[in-house]
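Discrete fold record:
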Amino acid sequence: MRSKESSGSIILPVAILAVVVVFMGLVIYNQLKHHNALNEMINAQAAQIDGNRTQIENLTAIKSSQSELQRKAEFVEGLLPEGPEENDIIERIERMASRANVRLQKITFDQRVPKTGYTEMPLKLFFTGGYAGMQTLLEDLNTAKRLFTVGEVSVNAGTDSSALAIEISAKAFFISK
């Protein structure tokens, strides 16, 4: 009988030990699962912090270049005004002609060509003057504070023996509203 009693008394502690081991295993498994979930959340937060840090650096760089961007925006607005401003074109070309020592004879504005976001203003410019002045005038048109494109340049002998007759087909532009 003792063997039955001793085997019965061993089964109970072994069963309790087995239950405790299973319970501990479940607790450890649950803790590992939560640990992994926390690690994933920490990694996601770290990635978000890195993204925020990069965004702050980009915004700081933009802020530091704000005055330069404003200056460039004002320059572009000058290149493409919000209206045709034909009188402004005439005044600019007269100043360029004066600096280049050529004489503006006539300006004609052709029909405007609407484009997406802007309008082209074809124009013909007629000058008389010397070769060096013509070169200076073309350079000034190229670097003007208003956008001009030169399409064709026709040079012929002028009425004076030292003068040239210069005809320039060009375009000016303005922002369409």
In short: The chain has a mean pLDDT of 85. DSSP finds four helices and five strands in the chain. The CA atoms of residues 46 and 163 lie 75 Å apart. Residues 8-79 form one domain.
